[in-house]
Design goal:
It is built from 5 helices and 4 strands, in the order αβββαβααα. By secondary structure, the protein is mostly helical. It folds into 2 domains: 3-83, no CATH class; 105-179, Orthogonal Bundle (Histone, subunit A), CATH 1.10.20.
Amino acid sequence: MSIDTDLESRTFWKRCSSCKNEIPFSTTYWVCSVSTCNRKRTGMVFCSVGCWEMHRPMMRHRDDYAVEQRSPSKEVWLREQSEQDDEDDVPATSSRRRVSVAAPATASDGEEDGDNEILVVASKLKKYIRARSGMNTSDSVMSALSAHVRAICNQAIRTAAQDGRKTVMDRDLPPIEND
């Protein structure tokens, strides 16, 4: 039996991440509102709100909720699978990626893949702010602070490149304004 035949004979979209029951095509399912649970690689899906609630104690989310979604129809899902297979069939030219180190950062900084990642350790930042002020820290601070860190790093990269170096050093960072 070929893989295509297996896909076409499949009667469900995915399995629930908690109870492992089948989630049918074109039906309601739930995902967690926390981004680490609904990334492509993690891909947690739940057949009911009860199953979603079962994963909460293990994940220790603070501010989360179940988001209602609708699974794709079988035709749409088959089309997505064939497109993904086509992408996987393209041979890689090399297992290593060549990177130009001498090229300085460009004006399009912040638009590449991975530029929305959080660059700070949230727990340590929250601990610092609480110890320093007794205040709580919103999760949205992490993405805003990461944008500032990216801007500082991009400036340091440009400075190192202008000096003809391939290493970013502490002296390339802008000075800190003391409070």
